[in-house]
Amino acid sequence: MKWVETDLPGCVVIEPQVFGDDRGFFYESFNHDKLAAHGLSPAFVQGNVSSSAKGVLRGLHYQWPNPQGKYVSVLEGEVWDVAVDIRRGSPHFGQWTSVLLSAENRRHFWIPEGFAHGFVVTSERALFTYLCTATYDPAADASIRWDDAGLAIDWPIAEPLLSGKDAKAPFLADLPPERLPRYVP
């Protein structure tokens, strides 16, 4: 596995070693020992899969309390994936990073607890998978507006297809402090 740091500390791209021949290919999508060698030892308790059409934007989602770390990848198609540091007191509060995830590049993206997450589908369809460190908690479910000018995320689409929940999500500056995770150095 190749470990690629992003410009947002804690968010990491993992590129697996792929073995292939005329029959197809094989790669490890997750190896606890190899991640632990880099200081990352998530305990996953839930796995999710979503299918979305071109132009669908999901996010920016997070849970607080009961935050989820997410290990995400794409099995079919392509997405532009985003993580935003929303931890109160973080030196990187409100900063974001992005990575292109596709079935072709087979990359995985680690988004730690305390970060909001979202993606937009750039192919005709995408099959997206993610492992989570906490189970979904409806009472902790929260969102931030995808087009929050304070975040200035450079989405590759101007008019995405949104859920009603995502279209009405609040701006980061409008969230009460108790609805945001706290940075712990």
CATH class: Mainly Beta
Oligomer: single chain
The stretches of 5 or more residues where confidence is low (pLDDT under 50) are: none
What do we call the CATH homologous superfamily?
Jelly Rolls
Radius of gyration: 16 Å
What's the total number of strands?
13
How much is the average pLDDT? 97
Q: H/E element string? A: EEEEHEEEEEEEEEH
Describe the strand arrangement of the main beta sheet, using strand numbers. 1-2-10-7-12-5
For the record, the count of structural domains works out to 1
Please work out how many helical segments DSSP would assign. Answer: 2
Identify the CATH architecture: Sandwich
Percent strand: 35-45%
* Biggest sheet overview: 6 strands, antiparallel
Textual characterization of the structure:
The protein contains 2 helices and 13 strands; from the N terminus they run E-E-E-E-H-E-E-E-E-E-E-E-E-E-H. The longest helix has 5 residues, at 32-36. Helix content is 5%, strand content 39%. Strand 3 (19-21) and strand 4 (24-26) form a beta hairpin. It has helices at 32-36, 164-167, and strands at 2-5, 12-15, 19-21, 24-26, 46-53, 57-63, 70-76, 78-85, 96-102, 108-111, 115-121, 125-132, 141-143. It has a single domain (2-179), classed as Jelly Rolls. It is mainly beta and 185 residues long.
